[in-house]
Amino acid sequence: MVCRNVYETLYSAINFLDNMIIINGKQTAADLRLKLKNEVDNLKFKFSKIPGLTVILVGEDAPSKIYVKNKEKSAKEIGLKSEIIKYPNTIDEKIVLNKIHELNKDDSVSGILVQLPLPKHINTKKIIDAINPDKDVDGFHPKNVGNLSSGHESPVPCTPQGCLILIKSIEPNLSGKKAVVLGRSNLNGKPMTQLLLNENCTVTIAHSKTKNLKEECLKADILVVAVGIPKLVKGDWVKKDSIVIDVGINKTEKGIIGDVDFAQASKFAKAITPVPGGVGPMTIACLLKNTIDSFKRSIV
Ligand code: NAD
Is 7 a residue whose pLDDT tops 80? Predict the structure, then answer.
Protein backbone atom coordinates (compact mmCIF):
# COMPACT_ATOMS: atom_id res chain seq x y z
CA MET A 1 0.00 0.00 0.00
CA VAL A 2 2.67 2.53 0.99
CA CYS A 3 6.26 1.84 0.16
CA ARG A 4 8.85 2.14 2.84
CA ASN A 5 10.86 5.02 1.39
CA VAL A 6 7.79 7.27 1.59
CA TYR A 7 8.24 7.18 5.36
CA GLU A 8 11.96 7.72 5.08
CA THR A 9 11.47 11.04 3.28
CA LEU A 10 8.96 12.24 5.83
CA TYR A 11 11.34 13.34 8.53
CA SER A 12 12.08 16.44 6.45
CA ALA A 13 8.38 17.30 6.65
CA ILE A 14 8.05 17.62 10.39
CA ASN A 15 8.10 20.86 12.39
CA PHE A 16 9.31 20.75 15.96
CA LEU A 17 7.90 23.12 18.59
CA ASP A 18 9.87 22.71 21.83
CA ASN A 19 9.70 18.94 22.13
CA MET A 20 6.28 18.67 20.52
CA ILE A 21 6.05 17.89 16.82
CA ILE A 22 3.57 19.59 14.52
CA ILE A 23 3.05 17.08 11.74
CA ASN A 24 3.28 18.97 8.47
CA GLY A 25 0.81 17.23 6.18
CA LYS A 26 1.16 19.90 3.54
CA GLN A 27 4.87 19.20 3.10
CA THR A 28 4.44 15.44 3.38
CA ALA A 29 1.78 15.54 0.66
CA ALA A 30 4.03 17.70 -1.54
CA ASP A 31 6.87 15.17 -1.13
CA LEU A 32 4.52 12.31 -2.00
CA ARG A 33 3.17 14.14 -5.08
CA LEU A 34 6.73 14.72 -6.31
CA LYS A 35 7.52 11.05 -5.94
CA LEU A 36 4.29 10.18 -7.78
CA LYS A 37 5.11 12.62 -10.58
CA ASN A 38 8.41 10.81 -11.15
CA GLU A 39 6.54 7.52 -11.16
CA VAL A 40 4.09 8.80 -13.80
CA ASP A 41 7.04 9.97 -15.95
CA ASN A 42 8.62 6.51 -15.68
CA LEU A 43 5.36 4.73 -16.53
CA LYS A 44 4.87 6.99 -19.53
CA PHE A 45 8.39 6.24 -20.73
CA LYS A 46 8.02 2.49 -20.19
CA PHE A 47 4.47 1.89 -21.48
CA SER A 48 3.74 4.99 -23.62
CA LYS A 49 0.57 5.37 -21.55
CA ILE A 50 -0.47 7.49 -18.60
CA PRO A 51 -2.85 6.69 -15.74
CA GLY A 52 -6.24 8.43 -15.98
CA LEU A 53 -8.55 9.65 -13.24
CA THR A 54 -12.23 10.37 -13.95
CA VAL A 55 -14.34 12.14 -11.35
CA ILE A 56 -18.14 12.25 -11.56
CA LEU A 57 -19.73 15.28 -9.93
CA VAL A 58 -23.51 15.45 -9.52
CA GLY A 59 -25.18 18.69 -8.50
CA GLU A 60 -24.03 22.04 -7.20
CA ASP A 61 -22.74 21.29 -3.68
CA ALA A 62 -20.17 24.06 -3.16
CA PRO A 63 -17.56 22.14 -1.09
CA SER A 64 -17.81 19.18 -3.53
CA LYS A 65 -17.12 21.50 -6.46
CA ILE A 66 -13.98 22.80 -4.72
CA TYR A 67 -12.77 19.30 -3.79
CA VAL A 68 -13.27 18.07 -7.36
CA LYS A 69 -11.46 21.07 -8.83
CA ASN A 70 -8.52 20.49 -6.47
CA LYS A 71 -8.41 16.81 -7.38
CA GLU A 72 -8.29 17.64 -11.09
CA LYS A 73 -5.58 20.29 -10.57
CA SER A 74 -3.39 17.94 -8.50
CA ALA A 75 -3.86 15.08 -10.97
CA LYS A 76 -2.80 17.26 -13.90
CA GLU A 77 0.19 18.63 -11.98
CA ILE A 78 1.70 15.17 -11.63
CA GLY A 79 0.97 14.31 -15.28
CA LEU A 80 -2.14 12.15 -14.97
CA LYS A 81 -4.93 12.29 -17.51
CA SER A 82 -7.78 13.89 -15.62
CA GLU A 83 -11.42 14.35 -16.48
CA ILE A 84 -14.48 15.67 -14.62
CA ILE A 85 -17.94 14.57 -15.74
CA LYS A 86 -20.58 16.95 -14.41
CA TYR A 87 -24.30 16.23 -14.14
CA PRO A 88 -27.10 18.46 -12.91
CA ASN A 89 -28.75 17.82 -9.54
CA THR A 90 -31.83 16.33 -11.23
CA ILE A 91 -29.97 13.72 -13.30
CA ASP A 92 -31.52 10.26 -13.57
CA GLU A 93 -29.65 7.60 -11.59
CA LYS A 94 -29.63 5.34 -14.68
CA ILE A 95 -27.57 7.88 -16.65
CA VAL A 96 -24.91 7.95 -13.93
CA LEU A 97 -24.90 4.14 -13.76
CA ASN A 98 -24.55 3.86 -17.55
CA LYS A 99 -21.63 6.29 -17.49
CA ILE A 100 -19.93 4.22 -14.77
CA HIS A 101 -20.38 1.04 -16.86
CA GLU A 102 -18.85 2.86 -19.82
CA LEU A 103 -15.87 4.07 -17.74
CA ASN A 104 -15.40 0.56 -16.31
CA LYS A 105 -14.69 -0.66 -19.86
CA ASP A 106 -12.53 2.30 -20.91
CA ASP A 107 -8.84 1.31 -20.84
CA SER A 108 -7.71 4.93 -20.62
CA VAL A 109 -9.49 5.29 -17.25
CA SER A 110 -7.50 3.82 -14.34
CA GLY A 111 -9.53 5.34 -11.53
CA ILE A 112 -13.19 6.31 -11.13
CA LEU A 113 -14.37 8.49 -8.27
CA VAL A 114 -17.95 9.57 -7.67
CA GLN A 115 -17.90 12.66 -5.46
CA LEU A 116 -20.09 12.26 -2.37
CA PRO A 117 -22.61 13.25 -1.14
CA LEU A 118 -25.02 12.50 -3.99
CA PRO A 119 -28.51 14.01 -4.29
CA LYS A 120 -31.12 12.12 -2.23
CA HIS A 121 -32.87 10.52 -5.24
CA ILE A 122 -29.66 8.70 -6.19
CA ASN A 123 -28.84 5.48 -4.32
CA THR A 124 -25.22 5.93 -3.19
CA LYS A 125 -24.72 2.22 -2.47
CA LYS A 126 -25.91 1.28 -5.97
CA ILE A 127 -23.49 3.80 -7.49
CA ILE A 128 -20.49 2.61 -5.46
CA ASP A 129 -21.33 -1.04 -6.17
CA ALA A 130 -21.36 -0.30 -9.92
CA ILE A 131 -17.73 0.87 -9.99
CA ASN A 132 -15.25 -1.80 -11.09
CA PRO A 133 -13.45 -2.59 -7.78
CA ASP A 134 -10.10 -2.44 -9.61
CA LYS A 135 -10.85 1.19 -10.56
CA ASP A 136 -12.40 2.15 -7.21
CA VAL A 137 -9.76 4.68 -6.16
CA ASP A 138 -11.81 5.75 -3.12
CA GLY A 139 -11.67 2.19 -1.78
CA PHE A 140 -15.39 2.24 -0.92
CA HIS A 141 -16.55 -0.77 -2.99
CA PRO A 142 -17.64 -3.66 -0.72
CA LYS A 143 -15.03 -5.93 -2.34
CA ASN A 144 -12.28 -3.50 -1.41
CA VAL A 145 -13.68 -3.01 2.10
CA GLY A 146 -13.52 -6.80 2.47
CA ASN A 147 -10.00 -6.94 1.05
CA LEU A 148 -8.83 -4.34 3.54
CA SER A 149 -10.34 -6.18 6.48
CA SER A 150 -8.85 -9.50 5.38
CA GLY A 151 -5.44 -7.93 4.80
CA HIS A 152 -5.40 -8.34 1.00
CA GLU A 153 -3.99 -5.71 -1.29
CA SER A 154 -6.63 -3.29 -2.58
CA PRO A 155 -7.25 0.46 -2.87
CA VAL A 156 -7.32 1.93 0.64
CA PRO A 157 -9.64 4.88 1.39
CA CYS A 158 -7.59 8.03 0.86
CA THR A 159 -8.03 9.92 4.15
CA PRO A 160 -7.21 7.01 6.49
CA GLN A 161 -4.33 6.05 4.19
CA GLY A 162 -2.97 9.59 4.56
CA CYS A 163 -3.44 9.47 8.33
CA LEU A 164 -1.43 6.25 8.54
CA ILE A 165 1.44 7.77 6.56
CA LEU A 166 1.51 10.72 8.97
CA ILE A 167 1.36 8.46 12.05
CA LYS A 168 4.19 6.27 10.72
CA SER A 169 6.30 9.34 10.00
CA ILE A 170 6.47 9.74 13.78
CA GLU A 171 6.31 6.11 14.89
CA PRO A 172 7.29 3.60 12.18
CA ASN A 173 6.57 0.55 14.35
CA LEU A 174 3.03 0.62 15.71
CA SER A 175 2.97 -2.96 16.95
CA GLY A 176 1.34 -3.22 20.39
CA LYS A 177 0.36 0.46 20.54
CA LYS A 178 -3.02 1.35 21.93
CA ALA A 179 -5.00 3.27 19.29
CA VAL A 180 -8.35 4.98 19.71
CA VAL A 181 -10.36 6.06 16.66
CA LEU A 182 -13.16 8.54 17.30
CA GLY A 183 -15.87 8.24 14.65
CA ARG A 184 -17.12 5.12 12.87
CA SER A 185 -17.98 6.34 9.38
CA ASN A 186 -17.36 4.08 6.37
CA LEU A 187 -15.24 6.89 4.93
CA ASN A 188 -12.89 7.46 7.85
CA GLY A 189 -13.37 5.74 11.20
CA LYS A 190 -13.92 2.14 10.07
CA PRO A 191 -11.09 1.91 7.50
CA MET A 192 -8.77 3.77 9.91
CA THR A 193 -9.51 1.16 12.56
CA GLN A 194 -8.74 -1.61 10.10
CA LEU A 195 -5.46 -0.04 8.99
CA LEU A 196 -4.31 0.34 12.60
CA LEU A 197 -5.34 -3.24 13.35
CA ASN A 198 -3.30 -4.39 10.32
CA GLU A 199 -0.34 -2.57 11.95
CA ASN A 200 -0.86 -4.71 15.08
CA CYS A 201 -2.27 -1.92 17.22
CA THR A 202 -4.86 -2.66 19.89
CA VAL A 203 -7.72 -0.57 18.59
CA THR A 204 -10.82 0.90 20.20
CA ILE A 205 -13.41 2.54 17.97
CA ALA A 206 -15.49 5.16 19.78
CA HIS A 207 -18.55 7.01 18.52
CA SER A 208 -21.57 9.09 19.45
CA LYS A 209 -22.96 6.39 21.77
CA THR A 210 -19.66 5.63 23.54
CA LYS A 211 -19.71 6.22 27.28
CA ASN A 212 -16.79 7.96 28.99
CA LEU A 213 -15.24 9.27 25.79
CA LYS A 214 -12.60 11.21 27.70
CA GLU A 215 -11.44 8.08 29.57
CA GLU A 216 -11.24 6.13 26.30
CA CYS A 217 -9.19 8.86 24.64
CA LEU A 218 -6.83 9.09 27.59
CA LYS A 219 -5.74 5.48 26.99
CA ALA A 220 -4.59 6.22 23.43
CA ASP A 221 -0.96 6.17 22.33
CA ILE A 222 -2.45 7.06 18.95
CA LEU A 223 -5.65 9.09 18.80
CA VAL A 224 -7.40 9.62 15.45
CA VAL A 225 -10.41 11.93 15.55
CA ALA A 226 -12.92 11.97 12.65
CA VAL A 227 -16.19 13.29 14.02
CA GLY A 228 -17.03 16.73 12.66
CA ILE A 229 -17.50 18.59 15.97
CA PRO A 230 -15.18 21.60 16.46
CA LYS A 231 -12.75 21.15 19.37
CA LEU A 232 -14.57 18.07 20.71
CA VAL A 233 -11.31 16.67 22.06
CA LYS A 234 -9.94 18.79 24.91
CA GLY A 235 -6.37 18.94 26.16
CA ASP A 236 -7.12 16.81 29.22
CA TRP A 237 -8.45 14.00 26.95
CA VAL A 238 -4.98 13.54 25.46
CA LYS A 239 -2.47 11.05 26.90
CA LYS A 240 1.00 12.45 27.49
CA ASP A 241 3.40 11.77 24.60
CA SER A 242 0.68 10.42 22.31
CA ILE A 243 0.24 11.01 18.58
CA VAL A 244 -2.94 12.96 17.74
CA ILE A 245 -4.39 12.99 14.22
CA ASP A 246 -7.22 15.44 13.61
CA VAL A 247 -9.31 14.58 10.54
CA GLY A 248 -12.06 17.11 11.27
CA ILE A 249 -12.78 19.98 8.91
CA ASN A 250 -15.24 22.40 10.50
CA LYS A 251 -16.09 25.73 8.96
CA THR A 252 -16.56 28.37 11.67
CA GLU A 253 -16.60 32.17 11.82
CA LYS A 254 -12.94 31.95 12.83
CA GLY A 255 -12.08 29.86 9.76
CA ILE A 256 -11.54 26.13 9.37
CA ILE A 257 -10.84 24.29 12.60
CA GLY A 258 -10.47 20.66 13.57
CA ASP A 259 -12.15 18.27 16.01
CA VAL A 260 -9.28 18.68 18.48
CA ASP A 261 -8.51 21.72 20.61
CA PHE A 262 -5.04 22.11 19.09
CA ALA A 263 -3.68 24.69 21.57
CA GLN A 264 -4.64 22.54 24.56
CA ALA A 265 -3.87 19.13 23.08
CA SER A 266 -0.42 20.17 21.89
CA LYS A 267 0.61 20.63 25.54
CA PHE A 268 0.24 16.88 26.07
CA ALA A 269 0.81 15.20 22.72
CA LYS A 270 4.21 14.13 21.39
CA ALA A 271 3.03 14.95 17.86
CA ILE A 272 -0.15 16.45 16.45
CA THR A 273 -1.60 17.42 13.06
CA PRO A 274 -2.80 20.99 12.59
CA VAL A 275 -6.06 21.94 10.81
CA PRO A 276 -5.67 23.08 8.10
CA GLY A 277 -2.37 21.71 6.81
CA GLY A 278 -2.49 18.28 8.44
CA VAL A 279 -4.60 15.43 7.10
CA GLY A 280 -6.41 17.40 4.37
CA PRO A 281 -3.55 17.62 1.83
CA MET A 282 -2.78 13.93 2.30
CA THR A 283 -6.23 12.87 1.09
CA ILE A 284 -5.69 14.09 -2.47
CA ALA A 285 -2.10 12.85 -2.59
CA CYS A 286 -3.33 9.36 -1.64
CA LEU A 287 -6.06 9.54 -4.30
CA LEU A 288 -3.33 10.15 -6.89
CA LYS A 289 -1.37 7.23 -5.47
CA ASN A 290 -4.42 4.95 -5.68
CA THR A 291 -4.93 5.96 -9.33
CA ILE A 292 -1.33 5.12 -10.22
CA ASP A 293 -1.52 1.83 -8.30
CA SER A 294 -4.70 0.94 -10.19
CA PHE A 295 -2.95 1.64 -13.51
CA LYS A 296 0.02 -0.53 -12.47
CA ARG A 297 -2.30 -3.42 -11.54
CA SER A 298 -3.99 -3.13 -14.94
CA ILE A 299 -0.76 -3.51 -16.91
CA VAL A 300 0.74 -6.42 -14.96
P1 NAD B 1 -19.63 11.28 9.60
O2 NAD B 1 -20.62 12.32 9.99
O3 NAD B 1 -19.94 10.32 8.54
O4 NAD B 1 -19.26 10.45 10.91
C5 NAD B 1 -19.04 11.08 12.13
C6 NAD B 1 -18.78 10.04 13.18
O7 NAD B 1 -18.59 10.73 14.42
C8 NAD B 1 -19.93 9.07 13.39
O9 NAD B 1 -19.42 7.77 13.35
C10 NAD B 1 -20.48 9.37 14.79
O11 NAD B 1 -20.83 8.22 15.52
C12 NAD B 1 -19.32 10.06 15.46
N13 NAD B 1 -19.77 11.05 16.42
C14 NAD B 1 -20.72 11.99 16.27
N15 NAD B 1 -20.86 12.72 17.40
C16 NAD B 1 -19.97 12.21 18.28
C17 NAD B 1 -19.63 12.55 19.60
N18 NAD B 1 -20.23 13.53 20.27
N19 NAD B 1 -18.67 11.85 20.18
C20 NAD B 1 -18.04 10.84 19.52
N21 NAD B 1 -18.30 10.49 18.26
C22 NAD B 1 -19.27 11.16 17.66
O23 NAD B 1 -18.29 12.08 9.32
P24 NAD B 1 -17.01 11.74 8.41
O25 NAD B 1 -17.37 11.72 6.99
O26 NAD B 1 -16.25 10.57 8.97
O27 NAD B 1 -16.14 13.06 8.66
C28 NAD B 1 -15.69 13.42 9.95
C29 NAD B 1 -14.95 14.73 9.88
O30 NAD B 1 -13.84 14.57 9.01
C31 NAD B 1 -15.76 15.90 9.27
O32 NAD B 1 -15.37 17.07 9.91
C33 NAD B 1 -15.32 15.92 7.82
O34 NAD B 1 -15.45 17.19 7.23
C35 NAD B 1 -13.86 15.54 7.98
N36 NAD B 1 -13.23 14.96 6.79
C37 NAD B 1 -11.99 15.36 6.52
C38 NAD B 1 -11.31 14.83 5.45
C39 NAD B 1 -9.91 15.27 5.18
O40 NAD B 1 -9.41 15.07 4.08
N41 NAD B 1 -9.24 15.87 6.18
C42 NAD B 1 -11.92 13.88 4.63
C43 NAD B 1 -13.20 13.46 4.95
C44 NAD B 1 -13.85 14.00 6.04
Answer: no
